[in-house]
Amino acid sequence: MTPVLEMRDVTKVYGSGEAEVHALTGIDLVVRAGEMVALMGPSGSGKSTLLTIAGSLEQPTTGTVVVEGRPLSEMSRSEQARMRRRHIGYVFQDFNLLPGLTAVENIALPLELDGTRAKVAAAAARRTLGQVGLAEQAGRFPDELSGGQRQRVAIARALVGQRRLLLADEPSGALDTKTGETVIRLLRSACKDGAAAVLATHDAQLAAWADRVVFIRDGVAVDQTTPPSGPESLLAES
Amino acid sequence: MSVRHALLALLSEGPKYGLQLRQEFEARTGEVWPLNVGQVYTTVGRLERDGLVESDDAEEPGPQKGFRITEAGRAELADWLATPPSDQVPPRDELVIKVLVALRVPGVNVAGILQAHRRHLIETMHRYTRLKQDAAENDIGLLLVADAEIFRLEAIVRWLDAADVRLRHLPPVEPGPVAAPMHQVRR
Predict the structure, then answer these.
(1) For residue A121, which of A116, A171, B14, B186 is within the disulfide window of CB 3.0 to 4.6 Å?
(2) Using a CB-CB distance cutoff of 8 angstroms, which residues of chain A are in contact with residue B151?
(3) Tell me: the pLDDT tens digits for B47-56?
(4) How large is the ipTM?
(5) With an 8 Å Cβ cutoff, are B126 and A225 in contact?
(6) What is the SS3 assignment for chain A?
(7) Which domains does chain A have, with CATH numbers?
(8) Is B142 a residue whose pLDDT tops 50?
(9) Chain A residues inside the 8 Å CB shell of B118
(10) Does the distance separating the beta carbons of A234 and B128 come in below 8 Å?
(11) Does residue A43 sit at the B interface (CB-CB below 8 Å)?
């Protein structure tokens, strides 16, 4: 199966000379359809930089990034922008919802920007809002929603349309356990439908929902977990 | 984990057979704590000896022998539920000891040791999370047990993270005894 995301020997250096900072060094990461990978590491370890490079919001200094079989370096800026709108969904810690737009308008926005007719985009947005359990809140503005609801709107915006790669930076943020679990279940269910997800987090509970955890330290992937063998082995050991 | 009180709790719902006690115990604890039938009979036998449970006298010990809770058993159960678990003395934590020892062993990569334990803990958390993920929403026993294990393991991961941060901000520790010699303390 072709990987949805393939990063090979990716390095990111900021500044030069004495002020040079190696944010990422020699990162290799392959994520296939249906798979959820968590990047775990302390603040400043390079997790967020890795996500922004995977999502073509930033260019690597060296190395290659291939999304859906297409190297980003071979794509023009406008092709990259189209790829971001159509195939990549981002969930940021601070939600990044536009305050002047209702929940449904926020979700429809990326589709409209991509040329989808407003009516069609709104219908798709309503469907996705329904999936995240917020059909009733479609007409509300972000400041009329709770933190957990705003996060679900942000997830719906990341899922709407035919997104293949979901990138989430601390997606459960300051949410309580139950709401955080709802958010991660939504991402998992998108993976079940064929998307690939990468989430950056320092939260072990959240990371434990992923199929694989890659540990990042000082910009280097130092270790990773082996996929769980299933609950049966856990029962047998206890 | 008090099997004794868990069995009293099951009997507080009504009389039950030995085999039934075992099945219900496992179902309520999300099958995370398997219990063999011998343990059930030994424990229920002690409860009977202590007057907390009564059995059908006529029946021989076996799966069909029925048990019911006595008034003294109900009082014992109520007492146990309200008594805080014993956490007065900090347990001797093997992981903490390993890390303290690692600090003093020449040539040991302590960050590597912390990471090996972190990976192992997260792999275990993975498996409990899978249990939770596959559980039905009303399987409250399993969900609570899995949550408890996940929170417990997470606390250890957080300790490892904190240890990591502390160690990064310290100059390398000279190998030597863990406690400082008295003349250094006095100075």
Answers:
(1) A116
(2) 205
(3) 999 999 998 7
(4) 0.82
(5) yes
(6) CCEEEEEEEEEEEECCHHHCEEEEEEEEEEEECCCEEEEECCCCCCHHHHHHHHCCCCCCCEEEEEECCEEHHHCCHHHHHHHHHHHEEEECCCCCCCCCCCHHHHHHHHHHHCCCCHHHHHHHHHHHHHHCCCHHHCCCCHHHCCHHHHHHHHHHHHHCCCCCEEEEECCCCCCCHHHHHHHHHHHHHHHHCCCEEEEEECCHHHHCCCCEEEEEECCEEEEECCCCCCHHHHHHHC
(7) 3-237 (3.40.50.300)
(8) yes
(9) 215
(10) yes
(11) no
